[in-house]
């Protein structure tokens, strides 16, 4: 059976404004908790966000701390990855309040920030020292966050 043309608007109206049970008031319209500028900032950060990858972190730390220094052509890329690991660990520590609860973690965060602000030296020996200091700090901060319970379900080798 085909419904008459005048029946469709009534059905559509019913879907758009369903009747509420007796005595209930309609809910207030939803509004965003952030202003448009803040929403754009959050969206930009989400677009570049990378999930925490313990395996990649441990691989990079191992490469930097190995007895054989990384090849010169790979050092800058490794340094950037280690800086990224430091940034993620610092963010995890701060968001979990580890910097307020533990002075050792606070010291490691300060060291991490200092190392991240340094430019990798051009001299090959100094560049290797810089990579190893960075990797050591990544490893120490990871272990501290695990020990204090700010990171869980991580299986360091």
From TrEMBL:
<dbReference type="Pfam" id="PF19979">
    <property type="entry name" value="DUF6415"/>
</dbReference>
<feature type="region of interest" description="Disordered">
    <location>
        <begin position="1"/>
        <end position="32"/>
    </location>
</feature>
<protein>
    <submittedName>
        <fullName>DUF6415 family natural product biosynthesis protein</fullName>
    </submittedName>
</protein>
<dbReference type="InterPro" id="IPR046300">
    <property type="entry name" value="DUF6415"/>
</dbReference>
């Amino acid at each position: 059976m085909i419904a008459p043309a005048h029946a469709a608007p009534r059905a559509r109206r019913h879907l758009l404004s369903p009747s509420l049970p007796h005595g209930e008031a309609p809910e207030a319209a939803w509004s965003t908790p952030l202003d448009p500028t803040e929403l754009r900032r959050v969206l930009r950060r989400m677009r570049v966000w990378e999930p925490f990858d313990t395996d990649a972190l441990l691989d990079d730390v191992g490469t930097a701390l190995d007895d054989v220094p990384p090849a010169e052509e790979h050092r800058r890329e490794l340094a950037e990855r280690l800086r990224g690991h430091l940034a993620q660990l610092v963010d995890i520590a701060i968001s979990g309040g580890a910097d307020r609860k533990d002075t050792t973690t606070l010291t490691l965060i300060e060291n991490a920030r200092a190392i991240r602000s340094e430019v990798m030296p051009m001299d090959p020996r100094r560049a290797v020292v810089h990579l190893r200091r960075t990797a050591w700090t990544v490893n120490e901060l990871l272990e501290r966050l695990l020990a204090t319970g700010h990171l869980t379900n991580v299986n360091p080798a």
